[in-house]
Amino acid sequence: MQDALVIIPTYNEIENIEAIVKAVFTLDKAYDILVVDDNSPDKTSERVKLLQQEYKNRLFLEVRKEKAGLGTAYIHGFKWGLERHYEYIFEMDADFSHNPKDLIRLYDACRKEGADVSIGSRYIKGVNVVNWPLSRIILSYGASIYVKLITGMRVQDATAGFICYKRKVLEAINPDDIKFIGYAFQIEMKFNSHLKHFKIVEVPVIFTDRIKGKSKLSSSIISEAIFGVISMKLKSIFNK
Questions:
Q1: How far is CA 16 from CA 38, 44, 209, in A?
Q2: I want to staple 98 with a disulfide (CB 3.0 to 4.6 A). Which of 123, 126, 162, 211 is the partner?
Q3: Which DSSP state fits 177?
Q4: Contacts for 199 with CB less than 8 Å, ≥ 6 apart
Q5: Contact (CB, 8 A) for 32 and 6
Q6: pLDDT computed for residue 214 by the predictor
Q7: Cβ-Cβ contacts under 8 Å for 219 (sequence gap 6 or more)
């Protein structure tokens, strides 16, 4: 078993899953992978099972009964990873919007440079996004500014989903207390890390929109993020 686990949540990622798994396993640094699949109709999990024959004891699979949201998939993965004593646990998308090579930079930020949470940030050096329409860039960038204003966090990319957490961070944040499932989940995890005074570092990355498959972004996820930030901030004030 390695010291680092990459959690990849999937729903209908049959076009991407084999390539992303192989890309991670060809890196110079060794990682284990946990795929958390929400019972994809396109049989993503069946492709993972075939890959497990090639990557025994490095590629793991958890299949849930139905599509239940990105946040709950990661929480499932966090619990799985903590039970198996991984020291560094990553969030990463299956669609190559996150470059697997950047896993090493996120790992080094925590392992060698003292960060407790390292974030693959699209906005630490300008706007590093490829193939997004202007409207989506404005929405995402605007959301991060909004989160900074409301929460007081000094995080440029609050909705980022490419992250490394040290084990102690996830142990300190009770996963069962995390309430949100979409963009707001990513914000809530960072906000809880901030409230507990963990060191958060942003590592500049280039985000490339998916080429294959369909985006899971929806209006309900955006709405959750807008109103969820306010409720998180109010809760933190009254719970002091």
A1: 15, 9, 13
A2: 162
A3: G
A4: 114, 115, 116, 117
A5: yes
A6: 60
A7: none
Topology of the domain covering 4-238: Spore Coat Polysaccharide Biosynthesis Protein SpsA; Chain A (3.90.550)
User: And the tokens for 5?
Assistant: 């686990």
Structure token pair of residue 57: 């004891």
Residue 101 DSSP symbol:
T
The encoded tokens of residue 96 equal 């190559």
Which is nearest to 23 in space by CA: 86, 90, 81, 99? 99
Q: Enumerate the H helices of 62-133 as residue ranges.
A: 70-83, 102-111
- Alpha-carbon distance of 177 to 21, in angstroms, equals 30
DSSP-H helix ranges across the chain: 17-25, 44-54, 70-83, 102-111, 134-151, 167-172, 183-195, 219-238
In whole angstroms, give the CA distance from residue 197 to residue 190. 11
- Cβ atoms within 10 Å of 99's Cβ, excluding its own: 16
Name the residue with tokens 């969820």. 228
> Over the stretch 86-121, which tens digit does the pLDDT of each residue have?
999 999 999 999 999 999 999 999 999 999 999 999
Domain residue limits, the chain: 4-238
User: Please, which residues bridge with residue 4 across strands?
Assistant: 88
* Parallel, antiparallel or unpaired: strands 88-91 and 163-166: antiparallel
What does the pLDDT read at residue 140?
76
**Averaged pLDDT in 10-residue chunks for the chain of 240 residues:** 94 96 97 97 97 96 92 95 97 95 98 97 81 76 83 90 97 87 86 95 89 56 68 75
